[in-house]
Design a protein that fits this description.
The protein is 34% helix and 20% strand. By secondary structure, the chain is of the alpha/beta class. The chain folds into 2 domains: 96 residues, Urease, subunit C, domain 1 (Roll), CATH 2.30.40; 302 residues, TIM Barrel (Alpha-Beta Barrel), CATH 3.20.20.140. Helix 8 packs across helix 10.
Length: 431
């Protein structure tokens, strides 16, 4: 009998599953004694519960009980324990924002990735165990950083990355105002698109290179020369070509969109989330609500740009556009909260120094969220946007043991999340 035939026969044989006894179940190897646990799925605070961990995953959340001495016990009885925090709008693999427009081109891809490694560590130490990195001028450096973290070469959060920006020539995703854009390095123009066909081709390229999702530039940008936040850029047809390409490959699309018309265009094209949404109007809010489109609104960093940007001499065009969008964005956020539009936590870290992502929580509470809603936006809601709610975002059996602990009660004072005391990622105690 030929080997392939034999293998085919073997494959048809059904072997009944054997019952797994308690003795066969994986043994608990760490046991976290929690003072309080923020249960983000129920919106309640649990007391007197402990977290059993097997490998990288949570095995049980249960009333505390005595464990064998062989099991490592982590005493967080004096702390409030939460799921690891998630920031869905970061730029880790990036040279950072400054007054020097040419800084990204002066920074090689290798140096950009090394800067990203430091940014990743700072972010993890601040309690952010998962991030969505939404683009870099130096295309694909975010993918390299993600791969390095996954291979345990550098410490950092779980990363979901875009690879680069899909943008029109001279649009909000280009490094404008330094040299003629045609003279920019190739890796800075991977996503530059004219027409639906090229947009789809560029989308395919990023996916092939390892992007987890795609990032469209639907409107002009605040921090880009020669573009206006309120002006639409990519057409509905171009964006839909990207969305369709992504869907065929099992990934989703998010859109940078400040202006109301650009937001509506992106939603019509079928994107999963809108970044910034600074100038969103009532019609766009209703459309987002009806379509189930997520908003990721960076309502803290306007203050940072105004303060530090002014002191450091950032371009006046940047400062002007920031002034025109900051308060309007916050008003739109407050409306979105009241309407029940889906909101996930995203800060635009990289505009400000990495590691202070928690500063946005107080703004979210100031503009309408309860502390629990703000925490949920950075945990279970963020996981839902990623499509990873069965793996991340809650202190629940089967989820990764990504945990943070703080002395104070963040439900009483949300600013407690600006200074995380302890961090665990995948069952490994980071600090």
């Amino acid at each position: 009998m030929r080997l392939p035939v034999l293998l085919a026969l073997v494959a048809t044989v059904t072997i009944p599953a054997l019952p797994v006894s308690a003795q066969d179940a994986p043994a608990v190897d760490r046991y976290v004694i929690a003072g309080r646990i923020v249960d983000v799925t129920s919106g309640k605070l649990l007391s007197g519960h402990c977290i059993a961990i097997v490998g990288e995953k949570i095995a049980a959340v249960e009333p505390c009980k005595t464990q064998p001495e062989s099991i490592r016990t982590i005493d967080w009885s004096a702390y409030t324990v939460l799921p690891g925090l998630m920031d869905l709008h970061t730029h880790l693999a990036d040279a950072g924002q400054s007054a020097d427009l040419a800084l990204p081109i002066k920074t090689s891809p290798a140096v950009t990735a090394l800067i990203g490694a430091k940014n990743a560590r700072d972010t993890l130490m601040a309690g952010y165990t998962t991030v969505r990195d939404v683009g870099t001028y130096r295309g694909l450096t975010d993918i390299a950083l993600k791969d390095a973290i996954n291979a345990d070469r550098v410490p950092g959060p779980r990363m979901f990355v875009a690879g680069g920006y899909i943008t029109k020539p001279g649009g909000g995703g280009e490094l404008n105002g330094v040299v003629d854009n045609e003279k920019l390095p190739e890796d800075m123009r991977y996503g530059v698109s004219v027409g639906p066909e090229q947009a789809a081709t560029n989308a395919e390229y990023f996916i092939e290179e390892g992007a987890d999702f795609l990032k469209l530039i639907a409107t002009g940008a605040v921090l880009a020369i020669g573009t206006e936040p309120g002006e639409p850029e990519l057409s509905v047809e171009e964006m839909k070509a990207v969305v369709d390409t992504a869907a065929k490959r099992g990934v989703y699309v998010t859109a940078h969109a400040h202006g109301a018309q650009g937001i509506k265009n992106a939603i019509a094209a079928g994107v999963r989330s809108i970044e910034h949404a600074s100038l969103i109007d009532d019609e766009a809010l209703k459309l987002a609500k009806a379509k189930g489109t997520w908003l990721v609104m960076d309502i803290y960093n306007g203050d940072y740009i105004d303060d530090i940007g002014t002191k450091e001499g950032w371009p006046e065009e940047y400062l002007r556009k920031n002034r025109e969008t900051t308060d309007v964005q916050r008003a739109g956020f407050a409306k979105a909260v009241k309407m029940g539009v889906k909101i996930a936590y995203g800060t635009d870290s990289g505009v400000y120094p990495h590691g202070v992502n928690g500063r946005q929580f107080r703004y979210m509470v100031r503009y309408g969220m309860t502390p629990m809603q703000a925490i949920q936006s950075a945990t279970i809601r963020a996981a839902e946007l990623l499509g990873k709610e069965h793996e991340l975002g809650s202190v629940s059996p089967g989820r990764f043991a990504d945990l943070v602990a703080v002395k104070a009660d963040p439900l009483a004072d949300i600013t407690a999340l600006e200074a995380i005391d302890h961090v665990m990622k995948g069952g490994e105690l980071i600090r």
